[in-house]
Fold this sequence. Notes:
Pfam families: GerE, Response_reg. The protein is of the alpha/beta class.
Amino acid sequence: MTSAGPDPARPDPARPDPTRILLADDHALVRRGVRLILDSEPDLHVVAEADNGAEAVARARAGDIDLAVLDIAMPRTTGLQAARELSRLRPDLRILFLTMYDNEQYFFEALRVGASGYVLKSVADRDLVDACHAAIRDEPFIYPGAVTTLVRDYLERVRLGDPLPPRAITDREEEVLKLVAEGHTSKEIADLLVISAKTVERHRANMLQKLGLKDRLELTRYAIRAGLIEP
């Protein structure tokens, strides 16, 4: 009498559960393509999506997520801002950036906010799955164009507690700047950030002084250069 084969309806205890992924990008077509790449892997599963950084933070707080894959430039809250918040709220959460920006400034800021990896959208079909696997193993994944020695030097400075180049503006000022550049009024910004309109005006005045700028138009141009909004 032959023994029966494994019951397909019964979970295999030897196979770990798939990595649960949050995917955040403000372009639905991009999310659809990335989801096809990730869901084709048996150990990766997209369980939540978001089209801006604020929604990504809310989804990660509410759901059981192992890995967040974030775009950098998104409405209301950027991927970098969302990653800073997620690193505070969920230190165990792995974070990857999937971006069109082959830019050293964004790359180092991604490391600063706690990302495990940085993948270019142009080669997502080649690198993204490997980056996800590396993140779950708690290993860094850096896109091939990055200069390895610069990465090592940066991480060593962080480990030793050496001072890093100062940021021009604070996290809160950056939040206000993004919303200003998106065209929100002071009252709207105050409502979104749960602060007073006077505080919004004070942050804006501080940024103008720090950055040597004159008006809202120049703040918007700065926000574009900094990758807070798309041109």
